Amino acid sequence: MSLIDIIKNRHSIRKYTDKQISREDLELILEAGNYAPNAGGGQRSMMVAVHNAELTAKIGRMNLAKFDRSTLLGSYVSKEQPSCIDDPTMKNGFYDAPAVVAVFCQNGFAFRVADAFCMAENMILQATELGISSCIISRGEETFASDEGQKLLKEWNVPENYSAVCFVIFGYIDGEQPQTKPRKANRIKIIE
Ligand SMILES: Cc1cc2nc3c(=O)[nH]c(=O)nc-3n(C[C@H](O)[C@H](O)[C@H](O)COP(=O)(O)O)c2cc1C
Predict the structure, then answer these.
(1) How far is CA 58 from CA 10, 133, 169, in A?
(2) pLDDT digits over 26-82, tens only?
(3) What share of the chain is helix, strand, coil (3-state, %, to 5)?
(4) Binning pLDDT at 50, 70 and 90, where does residue 172 land?
């Protein structure tokens, strides 16, 4: 697949089979994240991969534990791949995907969010090339806010001046690929 086909064929997937991705594929996905552009060339972001379905589900539940749905009135994400916004009964913010990469960045850095999402984007494109489905997930900081969350960060040796920005979940799609959504008009202009 050419890069533009990979880009167009990538979809946020929220229905997964139990099949775990291989360690080899995970390492390639992490390598793609590691080579993402980063503000000022400072490489201030880092990734922790959880290659363990049980632990991934546990963190996924922590990800939604404090989710305030009251501000989401009218939000709608996807009929084919419903999100936790569409279905308030969902308890696992990682949708039972078997693997997750948590993306951390240095606190107080102006471009920490941008850096983290550049990493996430590189990872989802690499995953698509490998035939692996993915979805970017938010609520990084709140996921680890509890004592349980803080304990995990200590176990993983995440530096104290780093906090989670986002996650990327990985696995194999259960069912059909969704349709590519039509693009809104007037989002591109070329000035010669
Ligand atoms: C910054 C950002 C945060 C996102 N956070 C979530 C999230 O927390 N949960 C989720 O299910 N999807 C999340 N998504 C995925 C979007 O819902 C998805 O990209 C969007 O609906 C478009 O669908 P597509 O990725 O299939 O093209 C996020 C995407 C971005 C770029």
Answers:
(1) 26, 20, 13
(2) 999 999 999 999 999 999 999 999 999 999 999 999 999 988 877 877 788 999 999
(3) 35, 15, 45
(4) very high
Q: Could you read off the pLDDT of 93-141 as tens digits, one per residue? A: 999 999 999 999 999 999 999 999 999 999 999 999 999 999 999 999 9
- What's domain 16-68+87-171's superfamily in CATH? NADH Oxidase (3.40.109.10)
CB-based contact 108:1 (threshold 8 Å): no
User: Partners of 105 in the beta sheet?
Assistant: 45, 163
Residue 33, by phi and psi: left (phi above 0), alpha (psi -120 to 50) or beta?
Answer: alpha
Phi/psi of residue 125, nearest 5 degrees: -70, -45
Atom of ligand 1 nearest to the CA of 95: 11
Torsion angle in degrees (nearest 10) through CA of 88, 92, 97, 103: 110
Q: Hey, which of 13, 90, 137 would you mutate to test ligand 1's pocket, going by the most ligand atoms within 8 Å of its Cβ? A: 137
Do 35 and 122 contact (CB within 8 A), yes or no?
yes
DSSP characters over 29-74: HHHHHHTS--GGG---EEEEEE--HHHHHHHHHHHHHT--GGG-TT
Return the domain boundaries, the chain: 16-68+87-171
- Which pTM was predicted? 0.97
64 CB near ligand 1 (under 6 Å)? no
